[in-house]
Design goal:
By secondary structure, the chain is α/β, with parallel strands linked by helices. It folds into 2 domains: 4-241, Rossmann fold (3-Layer(aba) Sandwich); 243-276, no CATH class. 38% of the residues lie in helices and 23% in strands. The protein is built from 10 helices and 10 strands. Strands 6-7-8-3-9-10 form a 6-stranded mixed sheet, sandwiched between helices. A 4-stranded antiparallel sheet has the order 2-1-4-5, with helices on one face. Strand 1 (4-14) and strand 2 (20-30) form a beta hairpin. Helix 3 (100-110) packs across helix 4 (115-128) and helix 3 packs parallel to helix 5. The longest helix is centred in the middle third of the chain and has 16 residues, at 174-189. The structure holds adenosine-5'-diphosphate and magnesium ion. The site of magnesium ion has 4 residues, from helix 1. One of its GO terms (molecular function) is ATPase-coupled transmembrane transporter activity.
């Protein structure tokens, strides 16, 4: 079994106005996996993510990273945020420098690295998100999708172990979504653990190794995505629906075969099995 990289134990968090963000939330995120946090609006996904790198602090309960209790001392938070990189839902809340290059360089410069090392990291991060051509552009001239990729590059330039993304597909058009998905797959293949929040069940079903379901501030289920077909009632119980690929699969009634995870695989199955 894969070891835990992040663990939440009975975490409670209320916002200053009394809203419940997390309510006795317990879960484990496995190292090296692609984990999707699913849940309705207001279920606590963003609040959960903000606890992973110490931006929010539990009022009760514990968060562990790499088997160690989080420390909220400044020096340790800096180290934690180097290891756990977060891409926020809205790129405008993350970008603040004049140019793309300056923005991506900001984090590494603050680590006190040499100018050469910073330059090298920025080049590699921009290449990873396919944005070299935009390096000297003003950030405000970029499209929404490009801004998201600049945020991702800024995180990658810190050489994180865990990548956290809040609703990464929201606001991207279908072509950009496909591009972002293959980018996430490349990063995962390079060894990063990836944890993201989404309300897009079809995307989560196609992409993730593990799905974590949140409801009213709690983690209510943790499912290995390739076993989802046998646990569909969990999704309906929490009002998440059934992935579209699985709905078609259910209608085909091919229970003995391994369910496909994408529309492409489903189409291939249909053609290969001679459905007319
Ligand atoms: N800054 C905030 N101030 C007060 N309440 C908040 C704030 N952010 C989130 N909440 C509340 O906390 C709960 C969980 O929200 P959130 O973590 O944003 O859910 P999700 O990301 O799943 O949509 C909701 O009831 C929401 O209204
Ligand atoms: Mg959210």
């Amino acid at each position: 079994m894969t070891g835990a990289i992040l663990e939440f134990q009975a975490v409670h968090y209320r916002y200053p106005d009394g809203s419940k963000g997390l309510d006795d939330c317990t879960l484990m995120i496995a190292e090296g996996e692609r984990t999707a946090i699913l849940g309705a609006n207001g279920a606590g996904k963003t609040t959960l993510l903000l606890h992973t790198n110490g931006l929010l602090r539990p009022q009760q309960g514990e968060v562990r990273y790499d088997d160690r209790l989080l420390s909220y001392r400044r020096a340790e938070l800096i180290r934690l945020r180097t290891d756990i990189g977060m891409v926020f839902q809205n790129p405008d809340s993350q970008l603040f420098s004049a140019s793309v290059r300056e923005d991506v360089a900001f984090g590494p410069l603050n680590l006190g690295l040499s100018a050469d090392e910073v330059g090298h990291r920025v080049d590699r991060a921009l290449a990873a998100v396919h944005l070299n051509d935009c390096a000297h552009k003003p950030v405000q001239h970029l499209s929404f999708g490009q801004k998201k990729r600049v945020c991702l590059a800024g995180v990658l330039a810190m050489h994180p172990r865990v990548l956290i993304l809040d609703e990464p597909m929201a606001g991207l058009d279908p072509a950009m979504q496909r591009e972002f998905l293959s980018l996430l797959d490349e990063l995962h293949a390079s060894g990063l653990s990836v944890l993201l929040a989404t309300h897009d069940l079809d995307f989560a079903y196609q992409w993730s190794d593990t799905m974590v379901i949140m409801d009213a501030g709690k983690c209510v289920a943790r499912i290995a995505t390739d076993t989802l077909s046998a646990q569909q009632e969990v999704l309906t119980r929490f009002g998440l629906g059934i992935p579209q690929v699985m709905q078609v699969w259910n209608a085909l009634g091919s229970a003995e075969d391994t369910p496909p995870r994408s529309v492409e695989d489903l189409c291939r199955y249909i053609v290969d099995n001679g459905y007319k």
